[in-house]
Design goal:
The protein is an all-alpha fold and about 130 residues long. The chain contains four helices and no strands. The chain has helices at about 1-15, 20-50, 60-75, 85-125. The model has no long low-confidence stretch (mean pLDDT about 90).
């Protein structure tokens, strides 16, 4: 129970940007989220324009395109067929590369955050340098 309380306080600290470490993680998470949302809107629009008139496509509406693009950005496969146009296939690859990069970036950011927080806690437990209180 104590670890859940500690995790909750760390989440709140990240949201508020309490320390430079918390603010750094918050900045990275916000940048990744905003980037993904912008890419989702632009990618959905472009995918709709590229695929909507192609025979045998599953993308007929902007909603279909938004579902497909969002699923790709979440690195989750859907039952929809892959894009059929050359432009749609290139866009699909860009979306998949972006999604993989985001997963790696977030994982690295979280790892760096936990490492820095561990160092901060060790320094706080050791007290001020030189042993002077």
């Amino acid at each position: 129970m104590e670890s859940l309380r500690h995790a909750g306080s760390e989440l709140v600290a990240v949201a508020r940007g309490d320390t430079a470490t918390h603010a750094h993680l918050r900045g990275r998470l916000v940048a990744v989220t905003v980037g993904a949302l912008v890419l989702d809107v632009l990618g959905s629009t472009l995918m709709f324009l590229l695929e909507r008139h192609v025979d045998r496509t599953d993308i007929h509406t902007i909603g279909d395109a938004a579902f497909f693009v969002t699923a790709q950005l979440l690195t989750v496969s859907s039952s929809m067929t892959n894009p059929l146009t050359a432009g749609g296939r290139v866009l699909d690859l860009v979306l998949e590369l972006y999604a993989i990069t985001v997963v790696a970036t977030v994982a690295g950011s979280l790892g760096a955050f936990f490492l820095r927080r561990g160092h901060e806690r060790e320094m706080a437990a050791a007290g001020p340098p030189g042993g002077v209180a």
